[in-house]
Amino acid sequence: MAYHPHRWTVILVLLTLALTLPLGSCAKKTVVAEKPGEEALGAGNITEESLEAGGDRKGRARRGVSARAQAYGPEGIAFESEDVLFEFDSATLTGDSRTVLQKKADFMRKHPEVQITVEGHCDERGSSDYNLGLGQKRADAAKAYLVDLGVADARMATVSYGKEQPQDPGHDESAWARNRRAHLVIGGITD
Amino acid sequence: MTRTVNSSFFSLLVSMVLGCILLSPVALGAQARQDIDVRAPITQKYIIAVPHLVSGDAAQGTALAGQAEQSLRATGLFTVLDPGTYNAASPGSVTPPRDRLQYYAGLGCNLVIVGGVQPAGPHVALEMRLYDPGAGQMLLGKRYQGPAADRGRMVNQFVDEVVRYLTGKAGVPKGRLAFISGGTDARELYVMDIGGTPRQLTRFGTLTLTPAWTPDGQEIIVCSYRGGYPALYAVNAASGAVRKLKSHGTLNVTPAAGPGGLVAATLNKDRDQEVYLLDRSGNITRRLTNSRGIDISPAFSPDGRQLAFVSNRAGGPQVFVVGAQGGEPRRLTYGGNYNVSPAWSPKGDLIAYAGRVGGRFQIFTIPAGGGGARQLSHDGGNESPTWSPDGNFIACSSTRDGQAAIYVINVGTGAATRVTTMPGIQTQPAWCPR
């Protein structure tokens, strides 16, 4: 039940971005302001806002979209915005997850210079310590599938955040579903 | 909730009758010294009053009496008379006259604490006496002298002496706790003397988790993201100096420190999480587990010969025990489907853990050799148990009052006291072994 709204939202965002791509030239950087819980809707309705540079992450799971991703335009933004989701207490990839990862692999193939970090996250239920392990399993699962799809192992680092850095601070099933994720960011661990 | 003198006396009567009928009777009044195992469930409590201390500063006399009352209640051994329900004025002397003691006896008290405090140069002098008011006899008396800021701890020390006198066991928790405090972006390591003020030990500006004391109490091993991924660091408890342990891969988590400088931790170096033993610099000594899945949260036995840890090899997370030389792990927990965070009692006999019950976590203890689990907490969500060095108390994080804070539970009575009152969320306490 919780998946359906999210899936349609993601499709809507992607449609919007796909529609706006031909409208922008390579020289002009069109940025969609991306805040957790908000999606850009409506074709042609694009706001431009400078976001702070990625900078020294110091082990904080990134909020919003990194400067590196923005540099790749809408496809870079989509790469970081769309998470790989998991069922409760599971690190097994679903059909939807594989579809998302195939798009990630496409991006990696198209930009062979890109290094990424695959973050593993959990919802707030469960203990902190055990969730460090579960988060790692999720990151490992996403990375392993990308390796199967031909992405070089050495281009991808994994970091588990357990339940410590949720995407959605809510306490209901829809928040929990958003938080059970592998989150891919452009850049290495210390970038 | 106020208690009248009559109802407390009636309760005493009822509980005495019930005690005689149901259980081995504990005689009260005739002899004040008892043999009660602090770790066994309490069926009857001593009735005690603490009138205001004799002092030139009335407010101080009232405050210190209140401190004693709070500590007495926290032990779970006493029914403390509410000062609003009797004449709690200072008796005027630390050696009250017989008829004043009779007054307290008439209230139903088995015991009364009388004290006095006065300035002594730059310090304060505190005198505390435990009386059997019916017999008119002093049972125990102590004098303390020290900085005024330590008044509260002197009172706690006396309450501990009272419990030792009565039961032969410790009554008031003490020692040092390390714990984590913060919010979503940054969590830092803190240390506090129980009853004292917390001191921030790290300023990494990022996530720092799961503190573990070395057995000599010199260092605290933590897992921190200051390098962009979870790695192990040793923080000197006195100076705050930091040394990084060698990392293996990008998952170095849930450290425990054992005898001989050994560190146990979970690593993901070979694409599957396993528990490893490391030397104090982080070099791998031995891999302890060999099972696909999550193997995490190791905890040393007091003699270092065994480790408890958490594994999902049986489905959900359960606590297992393995020898420090390796070998086939033995499953310990069978109740419930989610048991984590094992901590081995310094006495060696029990292992505490957090088990999920009805959607929240509670603290349990289970015999280290296996057997039935005993639930110690019931209010709010309670996680991350750590034992006091004498094995009589367990500290944990608890959400019973709202945001998570550190609490101490008396293992025998189940009585719980809150020990941190800070902004933010306090979790993952670790009790210094010395």
Structure overview:
The complex is a heterodimer of chains A (191) and B (434). With 191 residues, chain A is α+β, with helices and mostly antiparallel strands. Chain A has one domain (3-186): 60s Ribosomal Protein L30, Chain: A (2-Layer Sandwich). Chain A is 40% helix and 11% strand. Chain A is built from six helices and four strands; from the N terminus they run H-H-H-E-H-E-H-E-H-E. Chain A has helices at 3-20, 67-71, 73-81, 95-110, 128-148, 173-179; strands at residues 84-85, 116-121, 156-162, 181-186. The radius of gyration of chain A is 16 Å and the shape is globular. With 434 residues, chain B is mostly beta strands. In chain B, the strands form seven sheets. A five-stranded mixed beta sheet of chain B has the order 2-1-3-4-5, with helices on both faces. Chain B has a four-stranded antiparallel beta sheet with strand order 8-7-6-29, with no helix packed on it. A four-stranded antiparallel beta sheet of chain B has the order 9-10-11-12, with no helix packed on it. In chain B, strand 13 and strand 14 form a beta hairpin. The radius of gyration of chain B is 24 Å and the shape is elongated.
Topology:
The complex is a heterodimer of chains A (about 190) and B (about 425).
Chain A: H1 3-20, H2 67-71, H3 73-81, E1 84-85, H4 95-110, E2 116-121, H5 128-148, E3 156-162, H6 173-179, E4 181-186
Parallel strand pairs in A: 2-3
Antiparallel strand pairs in A: 1-4, 2-4
Chain B: H1 5-22, E1 46-49, H2 58-75, E2 78-80, H3 98-106, E3 111-120, E4 123-132, E5 137-147, H4 151-167, E6 176-182, E7 187-193, E8 199-200, E9 208-213, E10 219-224, E11 231-236, E12 242-244, E13 252-257, E14 263-267, E15 274-278, E16 284-287, E17 295-300, E18 306-311, E19 318-323, E20 330-331, E21 339-344, E22 350-357, E23 360-367, E24 374-375, E25 382-387, E26 393-398, E27 405-410, E28 416-418, E29 425-431
Parallel strand pairs in B: 1-2, 1-3
Antiparallel strand pairs in B: 3-4, 4-5, 6-7, 6-29, 7-8, 9-10, 10-11, 11-12, 13-14, 14-15, 15-16, 17-18, 18-19, 19-20, 21-22, 22-23, 23-24, 25-26, 26-27, 27-28
